């Protein structure tokens, strides 16, 4: 059972990103990887040595995944590419299946069978023009789940449920999932939890990136809420952690026992007053938790 005690939180890397996103822990390398979307770069940090690396990208990286054969799969605005983290070479894999002037890839994660699930963001934010894609062996398949900002992808420990949020509607959804076939049952979609959209009354932020722990709880970063929430599989709030940044974007379980949380945050388009109040905005934050997370699966080419 997770403790409700407020943990000690610090910057793992005191280098503000514009919009840090998609942290993933590479257990064999004992290294955390993440992206800065408008900064157009992929970053990594090896906590034991403090070694920080970065790779510039030709367009905004919305999500990354480890490749079983090594390196990273990067979901860029312009399409999917493979990054050789040794020499920095980027090899195109698939073109973007959308109008890159209005959309880009956003949040994503691999399932236990090695498929990448990656959503998009409809940047005008005037309608649910985004969707969710399943990537298998380099091919993109539209799952046809409309959203305005697809986010919060995560899988239950038994691989029977896939979670996904639409940040614009402040809602987290759950769907039945079959790992063997890679099929998501859209008709089974149910609301895990919805949050207030009234910024003047009881506003606690909107759901962004997420991860699931070994007990099946869904951890969600609340953008503009300055907090992390741990939700039960039926949507009850089990724990709330206040952060020293108002705009957390996503989290990853890392460390030798997967009990260290790494949280990406944003500093872009924030007021001077907010940045003064939250000086760690944009930094990669770290804290310890009682319940371990799930290992990050790799993409199978």
Describe this structure in words.
With 301 residues, this protein is an all-beta fold. It has a single domain, classed as 6 Propeller (Neuraminidase), CATH 2.120.10.30. Helix content is 2%, strand content 50%. The strands form six sheets. It has a four-stranded antiparallel sheet, with no helix packed on it. Strands 2-3-4-5 form a four-stranded antiparallel sheet, with no helix packed on it. The protein is globular and about 45 Å long. The mean pLDDT is 96.
Question: Which SSEs are present, and which pair or pack?
Answer:
Layout: E1 10-13, E2 20-26, E3 31-36, E4 41-46, E5 51-56, E6 61-66, E7 72-76, E8 79-83, E9 90-95, E10 103-110, E11 116-122, E12 132-136, E13 139-142, E14 150-155, E15 161-166, E16 171-178, E17 183-194, E18 206-212, E19 218-223, E20 227-231, E21 237-242, E22 248-254, E23 260-265, H1 272-277, E24 284-288
Strand content: over 45%
Return the domain count. Answer: 1
- The assigned structural class equals mainly beta
CATH topology: Neuraminidase
What descriptive keywords fit this protein?
301 residues, mainly beta, Neuraminidase, four-stranded antiparallel sheet, 1 helix
Provide a compact summary of the structure.
The chain has 301 residues and is an all-beta fold. The chain has one helix at 272-277, and strands at residues 10-13, 20-26, 31-36, 41-46, 51-56, 61-66, 72-76, 79-83, 90-95, 103-110, 116-122, 132-136, 139-142, 150-155, 161-166, 171-178, 183-194, 206-212, 218-223, 227-231, 237-242, 248-254, 260-265, 284-288.
């Amino acid at each position: 059972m997770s403790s409700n005690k407020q943990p000690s939180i610090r910057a793992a890397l005191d280098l503000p990103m514009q919009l840090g996103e998609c942290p993933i822990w590479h257990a064999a390398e004992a290294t955390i990887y993440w992206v800065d979307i408008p900064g157009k770069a992929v970053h990594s940090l090896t906590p034991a040595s403090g070694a920080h690396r970065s790779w510039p990208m030709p367009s905004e990286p919305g999500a990354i995944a480890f490749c079983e054969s090594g390196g990273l799969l990067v979901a860029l605005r312009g399409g999917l590419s493979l990054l050789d983290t040794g020499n920095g070479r980027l090899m195109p894999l698939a073109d973007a299946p959308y109008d890159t002037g209005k959309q880009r890839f956003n949040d994503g994660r691999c399932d236990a069978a090695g498929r990448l699930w990656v959503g998009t963001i409809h940047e005008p934010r005037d309608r649910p023009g985004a969707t969710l894609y399943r990537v298998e062996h380099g091919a993109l398949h539209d799952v046809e789940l409309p959203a305005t900002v697809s986010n919060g992808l995560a899988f239950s420990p038994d691989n029977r449920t896939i979670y996904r949020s639409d940040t614009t509607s402040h809602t987290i959804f759950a769907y039945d999932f079959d790992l063997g076939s890679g099929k998501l049952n859209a008709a089974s979609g149910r609301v895990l939890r919805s949050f207030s959209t009234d910024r003047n009354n009881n506003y606690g932020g909107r759901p962004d990136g997420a991860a699931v722990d070994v007990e099946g709880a869904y951890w969600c970063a609340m953008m503009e809420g300055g907090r992390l929430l741990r939700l039960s599989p039926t949507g009850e709030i089990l724990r709330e952690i206040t952060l020293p940044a108002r705009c957390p974007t996503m989290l990853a379980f890392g460390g030798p026992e997967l009990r260290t949380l790494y949280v990406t945050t944003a500093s872009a388009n924030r007021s001077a007053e907010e940045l003064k109040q939250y000086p760690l905005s944009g930094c990669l934050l770290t804290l310890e938790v009682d319940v371990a997370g799930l290992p990050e699966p790799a993409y199978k080419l």
